[in-house]
Amino acid sequence: MATVNSGNRRRVSSGSSRGRSTSQTTRRSDGRKPLQGRDTGYRVGSSRRQNSSRSINPRIIIVGVVGLLLLIAIVFGISSCVRGCSNQGKKDSAKEQEQQVNPDDERVAFGVSSDVTAKLGAVLDRNEAFEKIAKSADKITDERLIDLAIAEPDAIEFVAGSVKANGSSQPYGEVVTQGTYPQLYTFDTRWGYLPYADGIMGVTGSGPVALSMAAMGLTGKNTYDPATIAQAVTAANLASGTTGMDDSFLSNHASDAGVEATSIEASSDGLYGGISDETPVLIKLKADSGIGSASAHWALITSLNSDNSVTVYDPTSALATSHSWSLGAVSSRTDTAYTLYSAGSDTSSASEESEEESEY
Questions:
Q1: How far apart are CA 252 and CA 243, in angstroms?
Q2: What are the distances in angstroms from CA 209 to CA 105, 106, 183, 234, 287?
Q3: Stretches in the chain below the pLDDT threshold 70
Q4: Domain residue spans of the chain
Q5: What pLDDT does residue 81 have?
Q6: Can you say how many angstroms the Cα of residue 150 is from the centroid of all Cα atoms in its chain?
């Protein structure tokens, strides 16, 4: 009985086991996965481990770093482009401005006013001319020309041109009004290169040029230009002395220049008495006088100013001519003086008036 029951239990057990197996098989064939505590727990744990691995995956970090670097590179590139474009714009603007030419003088920057351009242009002209003088100094045999260029800015271009000058002269050619005295200079290219005395008129012609100013003002004739008077002085064999014109030309040959000359005392009173609107005074300045050329030379005083100062028409210096001088300053630097009149005029009454003014 027990055996049977035992066998039955085994069979039942076996059948149950088969039944469960069959049931499992059937469920699998249905596509369903049996829920087993062991299997479920294992798989859930595995999923957690996989998620944890993904959250710290090095590839993700690398990708993030690369992305950040790319972003930085893009930002830097844009910034560089902006700066580069801005700088390039400035360069283009500056280059465009450089390409624009000053209509008054291309050597001066574009946009500068005409007045400033003229001032700078004059200095640039002198510098360029001075450079020519320096490069051709071996061809300038008369050292007085070098001294003239250094002392007188307005004479620089004249001296630079002396290297190629042919020694010819040209007429004055301008209209002259009687009673008005033109301001002339020895370094004028119309007569400055003409051979005269022991050099050229530019450095030796103060006498003919000063006398020419007086003659043209007194007569109103432009035929008494410096070259014409220089020829008259040379013809009289009086183109000599330190001033290039001997005093005796005024005493004996002044009529060749259309004037008459009377010697006066070279003092403040003598000069004051000899000057009037119709009687200019020709003076011979001493060497190193501080007025005009360092050499002894001739100059002209045309009239008294309201303060009794005088303007000296100095043919060797535009600077000396540009301002007034006291009679005392001029007389102390002068050793010879002549009052000049138009040739043929009545000089006796004028002389008497001059003496009376001097006494006064």
A1: 17
A2: 33, 36, 9, 14, 18
A3: 1-56, 79-98, 277, 345-360
A4: 205-359
A5: 65
A6: 19
